[in-house]
Design brief:
The protein is mainly beta. It contains three helices and 25 strands.
Length: 490
């Protein structure tokens, strides 16, 4: 009994270390962990009866006896299109008449995320009421997004490439089969956090270039944060036969502050001279980038039908609350000066306002046993409210009204369960006008300062704004996910 968990743990470790790490997902989550939960529309807070409970509800581990093993992977296709709203270019006016600029439509150039793994081992070590688990998973998200460097979206983003991993140690305890509690402690590792954007290096007063600035600088931030911490608490209770209620949630937000480097390239200046990044008079491009992932709370109720001690079918209703309002901005803490051809631009702190809002999702799903002990079918779906106000829409994390139907099955062969599931996540289109837009070109050297009303240094057609809106346009997005899991118990 003691050798078996060790052997399973070695298998998990080997699979993790041979995985192609560059493909692992990171960033805000889109779908769910594990094929069984995916097929149920994410309604797994109460069910939580396989090793994926380390994520959904660690209290569910207490009902898992013996030794269990889970290996899962999800492939995600991310289809994002941005149609920037046309704009008036007052930097190119003829006799007081500005040029009307139309923009091409752009799409994410790397739609496939091939690897988003989850692996876990559970064991009760011969104890009647206790279960322990170790495991890891990557967020179910698009880790890599890329858009044209000279595309109309460049003042928002040109590329994002993130690897994020959660390493878990979990424990659960139950009192008979009446109620249980559990805890997952999580070490959060971000070995890669790369982000790039175009900023306007213009330092001249009263000049705004909404289309393309002659002083455009491509800024690439490459970093990592190798230590973070959070945890998940969970509980369940069975008040009557056929009914379960559960509650679980991440009780600490995850604050990411990367140790990064800043590389700057002049895109439109006819110069072969490299851009220097200085602190004082010494070349030093070390910076930090900050972002927060929120606390979460989920609860659910599940009805199930059993016969002879075997569960025949169930249906579960979950509600999940994510406190995205804890993330009001992305912050580049730089404190550097860029220098090119004698022109110097100070970059102290660059804040990209996000003003996320809390989200609520409703998830409904269930299983039915079609062939006793052999085949289970499942279906479900969810609705999720937006985390992003349209005015702050941004290409890195699109979160509007979401609808997602899903379906899946489990086939038991030679004592192992092979599960597959598919879910389609549709987001309602978002349209942002220039009047509504609240994300602007970053112009760190601009003399125009809040409240942006000084006509001596601010362009009169953009009064009240730091520069031209960068995120006005139409956002179209859908996601397709296929999840496969292999699990067995000894």
């Amino acid at each position: 009994m003691q050798r078996t968990p060790k052997r399973a743990l070695l298998i998990v470790a080997a699979l993790l270390f041979v995985a192609p790490v560059s493909a692992i997902a990171g960033g805000p989550e889109i779908a769910d962990q594990g094929a069984r939960a995916t097929g149920r529309g994410g309604a797994m807070t109460v069910k939580a009866d396989d090793p994926s409970a380390i994520y959904y509800n660690p209290a569910g581990l207490a009902l898992q006896r013996g030794t269990g093993f889970l290996l899962s992977n999800r492939m995600l296709y991310t289809d994002i299109e941005f149609r920037r709203a046309r704009t008036l270019d007052w930097s190119d006016a003829t006799h007081g008449v500005p040029r009307l600029v139309d923009f091409e439509h752009v799409r994410n150039e790397v739609p496939w995320t091939w690897l988003s793994p989850m692996a876990a081992v559970t064991s009760d070590f011969g104890l009647e009421d206790w279960t322990f688990a170790v495991g890891m998973y990557a967020p179910n998200a698009a880790g890599h997004l890329k858009y044209p460097r000279f595309g109309p979206q460049r003042y928002m983003m040109t590329e994002q490439d993130v690897i994020m991993l959660y390493y878990n140690a979990s424990v659960a305890w139950k009192y008979k089969d009446l109620f249980g509690v559990g805890l997952s402690l999580q070490y959060v590792d971000v070995p890669r956090f790369n982000f790039s954007v175009v900023v306007d290096g213009n330092i001249s007063p009263r000049h705004v270039y909404p289309d393309s600035s002659p002083f455009d600088m491509h800024v690439a931030i490459r970093g990592e944060d190798r230590f973070g911490f959070t945890g998940i608490l969970g509980a369940w209770v069975k008040p009557i036969r056929g009914l379960e209620i559960a509650l679980a949630g991440r009780f600490l937000p995850i604050h990411i502050r990367t140790d990064s480097t800043l590389d700057v390239t002049a895109d439109n200046l006819a110069s072969d001279e490299p851009v220097k990044v200085l602190k004082g008079s010494v070349e030093d491009n070390r910076v930090a980038f900050e972002i927060t992932f929120p606390t979460q709370l989920r609860g659910g109720i599940r009805w199930y039908l059993e016969e002879g001690g075997r569960e025949l079918a169930d249906i579960e209703l979950d509600v999940q609350w994510e406190m995205w309002s804890q993330n009001s901005r992305y912050l580049l803490d730089a404190g550097v000066t860029t220098e090119l051809a004698g022109q110097r631009v100070d970059i102290d702190q660059v804040a990209i306002p996000r003003e996320f809002i809390d989200t609520v999702s409703i998830r409904l799903g269930g299983d039915v046993q079609v062939i006793p002990g052999r085949l289970w079918l499942r279906a479900g779906g969810f609705y999720e409210s937006p985390a992003v106000r349209p005015a702050y829409a941004y290409l890195d994390a699109l979160s509007f009204h979401r609808l997602s139907p899903s379906a899946g099955l489990t086939l038991r062969v030679l004592g192992a369960d092979l599960s597959v599931a598919y879910n389609w996540v549709f987001q309602t289109p978002a349209v942002v006008t220039e009047e509504e837009a609240r994300v602007y070109q970053q112009v760190p050297g601009s003399l125009c300062q809040p409240p942006y009303m000084d006509k001596d240094v601010c362009e009169e057609h953009y009064l009240g704004k730091p520069s031209a809106p960068a995120n006005a346009g139409t956002y179209l997005s859908t996601f397709h996910a296929v999840n496969a899991s292999l699990s067995f118990a000894l």
